[in-house]
Write a structure and sequence with these properties.
The structure is a homodimer of 149-residue chains. The first copy, chain A, has 149 residues and is an alpha+beta fold. Chain A has six helices and six strands. In chain A, the strands form two sheets. A three-stranded antiparallel β-sheet of chain A has the order 1-3-2. A three-stranded mixed β-sheet of chain A has the order 5-4-6. In chain A, a hairpin with a 5-residue loop joins strand 2 and strand 3. The mean pLDDT of chain A is 87. At the A-B interface, helix 5 and strand 6 of A face helix 5 and strand 6 of B. Chain A binds a DNA duplex (30 and 30 nucleotides) through helix 2, helix 3 and helix 4.
Chain lengths: 149, 149
DNA sequence: GGCCTGTTGAGACTGCGTCTCATCTGTGTT
DNA sequence: AACACAGATGAGACGCAGTCTCAACAGGCC
């Protein structure tokens, strides 16, 4: 259980490996790595982990700072938390089952460079988020399978 | 005053041109078209427009549906509202002065297509947001002027 | 002017996230 | 193994964005 990459990351960064943190790491892992804060809270309460709201948010904050997790705002306004590797990347979210995948640059860098050149902005940061249906949800859906943007 | 594009859009869509809506349209325009809900609220109150919180949010919701405005989530977690044209596009936000510019596709479409092909997802929607310094903030800033991503 | 329906404001309400503070617990030290 | 201390925690107050309800109001068409 301590081999959890989340626990490892906390340890490496010099954070204490406390009970609540280990419990949350396990919970997060069991969620396939993505969830809303509300879900995590409800589950922690249901399992009687004795972990307070404040601790949950604090831990998520730490994990975000460690780049182990990322907070994503869906177009619906919902906010989800996603486990990810500490490297620049973007997310692909299945709007039916909630599955998320990481995607790399895929040529975006040059698009951003082009925009900076055209507008005169100095671009420091960018976010790209894609939403759609993952392969398995596509399979179980009778609708069109074409790719659009 | 009624020539405001916001008022026009409301009218064209069959919404009533009420006092509160005209007042808000004027306020929004005076903000250079971008602001947080809190700013709009405070200003409406300060100017004693007699416009309630509910009406403000309702109006923003309508304007968003009409694609006259867009809601953007900044990396900081702050949520801003931006006036924009009703066409698919993306936003460039100056992290110092808050200025926003619209940007078109700029080659992003092919990046998205490439990602869809690679992952097997059917991509229905995407968001690209860029953050950095606008030309005038760059000018008044002694720091580096290089373009990075 | 009058009517009808869409719109409004006040304020209750919800829910996320933050903050405070007294208490507790990892963890390095001895 | 016990100690000490800083970091971590939980309970609950708090703040704030956004939603909802509902009675009252006011555009816009007659």
């Amino acid at each position: 259980m301590d081999h959890s990459p989340i626990v490892t990351a906390l340890d490496r960064a010099g954070y204490r490996l406390t009970g609540p943190r280990r419990a949350l790491a396990a919970l997060i892992a069991s969620h396939d790595g993505h969830f809303t804060a509300a879900e995590l809270l409800a589950e922690a309460r249901a399992k009687r982990l004795g972990v307070g709201r404040a601790t949950i948010f604090r831990t998520l904050e730490v994990l975000e700072a460690l780049e182990v997790m990322e907070r994503l705002d869906l177009p619906s306004g919902e906010r989800i938390y996603v486990v990810c590797k500490p490297a620049h990347h973007h997310h692909l979210v299945c709007s039916r089952c909630g599955r998320t995948d990481e995607i790399d640059d895929a040529g975006l860098r040059s698009v951003v460079g082009e925009i900076a050149r055209r507008t005169g902005y100095r671009v420091d940061e960018h976010r790209l988020e894609l939403f759609g249906l993952c392969p398995s949800c596509r399979a179980s859906q009778p609708g069109p399978t074409s790719v659009s943007a």
